[in-house]
Task: structure prediction
Amino acid sequence: MADTNADEVGTGTESTESSSSTESSTESSSSTGEPCSPPETECSGACVELGSDPENCGMCGHTCIPGTMCVGGECMADCVDCAGDCVDITSDHENCGMCGNPCDANSTCINGECVLGCPVDAVDCGTGCVSLASDPDHCGMCGNQCPGFCAAGTCVEACPIGSLVCDMACPLPASDPLNCGGCDIECGALQGCSGGSCACTDPSLTACAENCVDAQTDPENCGECDNVCNTDIGEVCSAGACVCGPGTTACDGACVATDTDPANCGECGNLCGDLEVCSAGACTCWPGLTACDGQCVNTDNDPNACGMCGTVCDAQPCGGGNCVTTCDGFPDQCGDSCTDVASDPFHCGSCANACAFDEVCLAGVCQ
Result:
């Protein structure tokens, strides 16, 4: 039996406001009795990952509302976690339909698919998109090669007034989709050239570089091209503005879930104590601890709250929720607490060595 003079962890901190935060559960085994392997945590008899489980997001029992998903332990607007970014794979040009699936320059991501196609008024002649109105190798029709220039789909000896001279092509800069406003300025798929500028044929979409995007919801082009929402802090694009996602609040430049964030519990700046977790917007004691007179204690071995609040062991240790004469029936003793440092998350491996909230104590090691 180990006997030390370490302070009691069970009588540690106030259960109102303090300085550090915790995020998940100390329970360690599933309904089968098998221990959960990190990063999984036991919730209601099942091993789950609190960082991604929408039914247990950030803590056991915290369910994300419809239209959101769990990313990094926080409920965020419906998106996919691509390398740590919250991405809308239905429209993202670099992650179309799945993470890491970019569309090429002649494609646009629509409903999760790269839509292949040429700009309006251009055709694919087997070697790529061409303008039949100005391409000297496909003048007026695919394969019709001119000995000289091509203008308005006809072979000519020189480019007419009002057209550009782009090598042997004579495009009209106001309407040519592959020379829109200047030589070799190509419009993207689903775009047309109007007045010398590329524009999307769908009036609900906005032309941004080679893409047609929904500026009302695209976090890379929110409200206007290249206005990027900060997805790292939880922002989403809604109605053309970068805002915090559903279920989150802006606190000190970050979008946080005040229902579960121990640093902003219930409201911005409300800190939970060292042995507390934020649940439904209120600071509560860790699972396995009980609030007694403003402190979170372990009634299983706390000599000042042995078995229940108010039960004080008079100069005796507490073990198994009972005041005992000695700790001889227990593997270890830490102060006046009878425990087992091989499995006690508050005395793991040695007295007063507390595991983090999202860790368990296995064979005396926090994992």
Observations:
- The longest strand covers residues 40-43.
